[in-house]
Amino acid sequence: DGGITQSPKYLFRKEGQNVTLSCEQNLNHDAMYWYRQDPGQGLRLIYYSQIVNDFQKGDIAEGYSVSREKKESFPLTVTSAQKNPTAFYLCASSVVTSGGADTQYFGPGTRLTVL
Amino acid sequence: QQQVKQSPQSLIVQKGGISIINCAYENTAFDYFPWYQQFPGKGPALLIAIRPDVSEKKEGRFTISFNKSAKQFSLHIMDSQPGDSATYFCAAPGSPSNTGKLIFGQGTTLQVKP
To answer: N or C: which end of chain A has fewer CB within 10 A?
Structure first.
């Protein structure tokens, strides 16, 4: 099956710990994205990457880091510098077109809770 | 930075009724406007999208109406069903550059009563 997988589904973090959320896609998409969703809120962009070994900050990148060493993988690290990390994290991917934006396909999400 | 304003925040409709959700955007050099549907605890899934060389696109019970001059677009759900109860997000291109970014609205929680 083609798609996007995220793991784990649920993650618990203690204060001061770094945690890494996994995102893998087999859609052969060049672009990948990380969003944060808080209750009753829209999706806010954390980081995005259009090509391997390159990524850009989104609107709320502080306290987060990413890497893009492989086309199919885009892991997100939530560092201890992120003051309020409890949220639902969504990974997405899309093709890159000359026309700008295109359909983004989302994974099932990871719910992170800080204890 | 693009802003997308979505309304209403929540909506209650009787089964068989019409659900209407509206979005307004600021500016864009690219034309791609999707609507996503999200069920609790799940990732959003594309519902319908429009590239407004047309003013309307229909897929089954779902229709996007687009008004480019007003920079507004809306989602109409005809014959609303309890299974349509979900959160709906509109989105618009995030910048004039070719980044593929989307800016999402705040979401509308739809409840369809039996």
So the answer is: N
